[in-house]
Design brief:
By secondary structure, this protein is mostly beta strands. The chain has one domain: Beta-galactosidase, Chain A, domain 5 (Distorted Sandwich). Helices cover 13% and strands 40% of the residues. It is built from four helices and 19 strands. It has helices at 3-22, 224-228, 279-285, 319-330; strands at residues 26-31, 35-40, 43-49, 68-72, 102-106, 126-136, 138-139, 141-151, 157-171, 174-185, 190-192, 198-203, 215-218, 235-242, 245-253, 264-266, 271-274, 296-298, 303-314.
């Protein structure tokens, strides 16, 4: 090999090595009978618990009535979700057993007994996983598409849920889940009346509650539950500290989502939820002069889109930094 060829080879080899080092960590899926595990760079990120696992029974008189992402880890392995009711941990709260990891439900669906949000004790209503449409990993990004049916108390499907979950390694201190969820009416019009009991939520770990280190901040600069609950905002950030590490969750609402910017059902005790369909309840609670219901109606074959990003980050995210992340997501 000539000197010129050797130099060219070494330059190419060096460039390849740099590119290999710069490549983002691989997002991969491990499929089981009852769940799909998500890993980033070989480390656990979360598990999509789509079907109740009889080998991992919940506490007595409780049932899993919807798919859930649980647990959810931050980039360095800090658990960001409450363990209960899937696991019992000493000293952890056990209120609201229907708060299961990251979940998507709402009450008052074709009103009657279809209280999907609050049900964790009866077999119906329930959201049942039907199939996986796509499961594709890759460097820095993995996509999981699923279909579920919302089954009413009459044991008939009320809605079909088409969900795309994109798992992202944005950098070594920032992991994210993009959720695009379409609710499709089947053979009849579906009405979802306004209720604070919804919609896409994460029940956070104890250290992120306000009685511990958790502090809410929204896109309008308002803080804590007192400032953010029941108000419209583009995003809310919840930040705390665990074992000396500042870490948090940024919840971003895409401008294309239904009833944007949405309302937030964000509680200091640990229920962190975006709820665009709680308009009347929230306006009434804040004593607005003329509260008005949103009253979502979906005609047969039509869909309503709910689109959000959940970011698990490490570091100190102030208003400016969170807004920058929101703008990158929203464009």
């Amino acid at each position: 090999m000539s000197i010129k060829s050797l130099v060219a080879f070494l330059a190419l080899f060096g460039l390849s090595a740099v590119n290999a080092l710069a490549a983002p960590p691989k997002v991969e899926f491990v499929e089981g009978k009852y769940q799909i595990d998500v890993k980033i760079g070989g480390k656990p990120f979360t598990s999509y618990l789509h079907t109740p696992n009889p080998e991992h029974a919940l506490p007595p008189n409780l049932v899993q009535t919807k798919p859930a992402l649980h647990p959810v880890y931050g980039p360095s392995g800090i658990v960001m979700t409450r363990a209960y009711p899937f696991t019992e941990v000493a000293g952890e709260s056990k209120d609201h057993p229907h708060h299961m990891g990251v979940y998507f439900t709402v009450d008052k669906v074709n009103p009657g007994d279809n209280t999907f949000w609050g049900n964790s004790k009866n077999p119906l209503p329930a959201i049942r996983h039907v199939k996986v449409k796509q499961m594709k990993g890759g460097n820095g990004k993995g996509v999981l598409e699923t279909v579920s049916h919302w089954i009413g108390t009459d044991n008939k499907p009320v809605l079909e849920e088409e969900r795309t979950m994109t798992f992202l390694a944005l950098d070594d201190k920032t992991w994210a889940i993009d959720l695009a969820i379409n609710l499709k009416a089947l053979d009849r019009e579906v009405t979802i009346e306004d209720t604070k009991e919804g919609m896409l939520a994460i029940r956070v770990a104890e250290f992120l509650t306000e009685k511990n280190t958790g502090r809410y901040l929204n896109s309008e600069g308002e803080e804590m539950e007192k400032g953010v609950w029941g108000k419209r905002a583009r995003w809310i950030r919840l930040q705390g500290e665990k074992d000396g590490t500042k870490t948090g969750i940024a919840f971003l609402a895409h401008p294309e989502t239904t009833n944007a910017p949405p309302y937030w059902h964000a509680r200091g005790y640990g229920c962190f939820s975006v709820n665009p369909l709680g308009q009347l309840d929230f306006q009434t609670a804040h004593k607005e002069a003329e509260p008005k219901a949103f009253n979502l109606k979906i005609k047969p074959g039509d869909k309503a889109l709910f689109k959000y990003r959940l970011v698990m980050y490490e570091g100190d995210w102030d208003k400016a930094r969170t807004e920058e992340q929101y703008q990158a997501y929203a464009k």
